[in-house]
């Protein structure tokens, strides 16, 4: 509605000429020199702008400036730079280009976003194919760029937008978690934890920040298992800092019934014979997840502790036995079962 578009515009000549073109013309108009001066890039009342209260006191003027930038070829130049292949743009430059577009995403019309995000896959493939050495100092920057691209996808109406956004982000996190560099593994672990935390948050709050999610708890359980994330935490390049950041993954899997006998026995075996500090952190992870484990898994943990020589019992073993016994007694009072300590 053109009247609504300019209702908040103050000052004469501040807004561009009213256009006869509206959203829905298709993405090709953004490459058409004969139409570029009339097409809309932003609209304060557009479908991708559910609530921009507080973002700016004059939405019409703000969107007018975005449209002017687009009609002067600004977005074309940004997209062309992202598409450049010889030489390709640096990761830091990719982030700098995407950041302002990401910042105004709520105001951008759907057709423009569909046109602009056609570059996403090329940029993603370029970053996912970068070597560990290439990403040595740029992983966090690249991760931010992935988030920007993912969020722009979510603001389009393409049916697979949320799926692309989530799977691309997970692919990049997995790449980082497999890195030989600790800093990159920790950053990737934080990305995975952030996704898990988002699944536990209220849907309205989560979608307001990132847009609709495609991944579900079931999908993430399967993804964590298929990619052997627990194996990478406990058996490949075991590191104290990785253990400290693995609580969210452990509790998420436990809450969803995915910490089973095999996982408990593997983790217990890893702890055996390790340095006291490493062992303590592994036992802490198990201790923190006991309340979410099934009774039969808790019984296995008791058997593992029982098998230890009495002289090797630590305070953590005693704490685990105390917590497990309390949980089993509580469960037994509601649903009797046979078990003896």
Write a structural description.
Keywords: Hydrolase, Protease, Ubl conjugation pathway. InterPro entries: ARM_UBP34_24_USP9X_Y (IPR056850). Pfam families: ARM_UBP24_USP9X-Y. Residues 166-323 form the UBP34/UBP24/USP9X/USP9Y-like ARM repeat region domain. The protein is mainly alpha-helical. It has two domains: 1-215, no CATH class; 216-341. The protein has helices at residues 2-5, 59-71, 74-83, 91-103, 110-116, 120-128, 139-154, 161-177, 182-200, 203-210, 217-226, 229-234, 240-244, 247-255, 261-271, 276-289, 295-306, 315-334. The model is unreliable at 1-18 (pLDDT under 50).
Task: Please supply descriptive tags for the structure shown above.
341 residues, mainly alpha, 2 domains, 18 helices, 60% helix, disordered N terminus, UBP34/UBP24/USP9X/USP9Y-like ARM repeat region domain-containing protein, peptidase activity, protease, ubl conjugation pathway, hydrolase
Helix content: 55-70%
Q: DSSP strand (E) fraction?
A: under 5%
Q: In terms of per-residue confidence, which ranges show pLDDT below 50 for 5 or more consecutive residues?
A: 1-18
Strands, count:
0
Shape: elongated
Instruction: State the order of secondary-structure elements, H for helix, E for strand.
Output: HHHHHHHHHHHHHHHHHH
The largest sheet, given as strand count, sense and whether it forms a barrel, is: none
Domain UBP34/UBP24/USP9X/USP9Y-like ARM repeat region: 166-323
Organism: Cryptomonas curvata
Protein name: UBP34/UBP24/USP9X/USP9Y-like ARM repeat region domain-containing protein
GO biological process, one term: proteolysis
